[in-house]
Design goal:
The complex is a heterodimer of chains A (115) and B (111). With 115 residues, chain A is mostly beta strands. Chain A is 0% helix and 57% strand. Chain A contains no helices and 11 strands. In chain A, the strands form 2 sheets. In chain A, strands 2, 4, 5, 6, 9, 10 and 11 form a 7-stranded mixed β-sheet that branches. A 4-stranded antiparallel β-sheet of chain A has the order 1-3-8-7, with no helix packed on it. In chain A, a hairpin with a 6-residue loop joins strand 4 and strand 5 (44-50). In chain B, strand 7 (64-68) and strand 8 (73-78) form a beta hairpin. With 111 residues, chain B is an all-beta fold. The chains are: A mainly beta (115), B mainly beta (111). Chain A binds chain B through residues 2, 4, 6, 31, 33, 42-43, 45, 48, 56, 90, 92, 94, 97-109, and chain B through 32, 34, 36, 41-46, 49, 51, 90, 94, 97-99, 101-104.
C-alpha cells in the first residue's frame, strides 16, 4: 500500500468542465509535488510545495491551479483544459526540501483524459 | 543544470538473462542518483539510490547499480531477469532538492 494516495484514479472531462485531482500523503512529509507524465515525454515537474507554501511553478498554464491546505493534502484544480493535457498526473511527497538527500515517493497517479 | 540520459528506450531480454539498463549523468557537483520503476498503470516506485556512500548500491527485487564517476554512469543491473521485472525504469538525478528524470527505458522479458 502506497503512502501517497491519489483520487480519482481515472477522470474523463470535457474542455469546459471544472474538476479537481486530490492527493493525500500518510508519511509525515513536509514537501509535496505534482508531476505530469505524457507519452513520449520525460516526467515534467509542475509544482512544488514545502510546508504548504508553493516554492516552484514550472511554467505551468493557469488552467492548472494547485492548492495545498495542509502538509498532508494537495489538490490540482483543472478548468478549461485542452486535449493535449491528457496525461497521467502523479503526486509525490518527500520528507523535507532542506534534507541533503530528498527521496521522493510517488502515488499511483490519476489518468486524465480531456475530450 | 544536471541531467540524465538513458541509453535505449526499449530493452528486451530473455527470462533468466542479465538485465542491464544504462544511465549517464551530467552534473557539476557530486550527484545524488536514483532509479525508479513503474509497473503498468501504477506510479513510480523507488528501486535504489546513490548518496555518495558505497559506489555499489543494492536495491529491491534483486537490482543493483554501480556509480562510476570516471564514466559518469549509474547503470542498473540484475543477474537474472524475471517475468515480473517487465516495466518502465527511470533514472533520475537530484537537483536543488528536486528530481530530474531521464526519458525512461521500457524493459520487456521474453519467456
Amino acid at each position: 500500500e502506497t503512502g501517497v494516495t491519489q483520487t480519482p484514479r481515472h477522470l474523463v472531462m470535457g474542455m469546459t468542465n471544472k474538476k479537481s485531482l486530490k492527493c493525500e500523503q500518510h508519511l509525515g512529509h513536509n514537501a509535496m509535488y505534482w508531476y505530469k507524465q505524457s507519452a513520449k515525454k520525460p516526467l515534467e515537474l509542475m509544482f512544488v510545495y514545502s510546508l504548504e507554501e508553493r516554492v516552484e511553478n514550472n511554467s505551468v498554464p493557469s488552467r492548472f491551479s494547485p492548492e495545498c491546505p495542509n502538509s498532508s493534502h494537495l489538490f490540482l484544480h483543472l478548468h478549461t483544459l485542452q486535449p493535449e493535457d491528457s496525461a497521467l498526473y502523479l503526486c509525490a511527497s518527500s520528507q523535507d526540501l532542506r534534507a541533503p538527500v530528498n527521496t521522493i515517493y510517488f502515488g499511483e497517479g490519476s489518468w486524465l483524459t480531456v475530450v | 543544470a544536471q541531467s540524465v540520459t538513458q541509453l535505449g528506450s526499449h530493452v528486451s531480454v530473455s527470462e533468466g538473462a542479465l538485465v542491464l539498463l544504462r544511465c549517464n549523468y551530467s552534473s557539476s557537483v557530486p550527484p545524488y542518483l536514483f532509479w525508479y520503476v513503474q509497473y503498468p498503470n501504477q506510479g513510480l516506485q523507488l528501486l535504489l539510490k546513490y548518496t555518495s556512500a558505497a559506489t555499489l548500491v543494492k536495491g529491491i527485487n534483486g537490482f543493483e547499480a554501480e556509480f562510476k564517476k570516471s564514466e559518469t554512469s549509474f547503470h542498473l543491473t540484475k543477474p537474472s531477469a524475471h517475468m515480473s521485472d517487465a516495466a518502465e525504469y527511470f533514472c533520475a538525478v537530484s537537483e536543488a532538492q528536486k528530481l530530474v528524470f531521464g526519458q525512461g527505458t521500457r524493459l520487456t522479458i521474453n519467456p
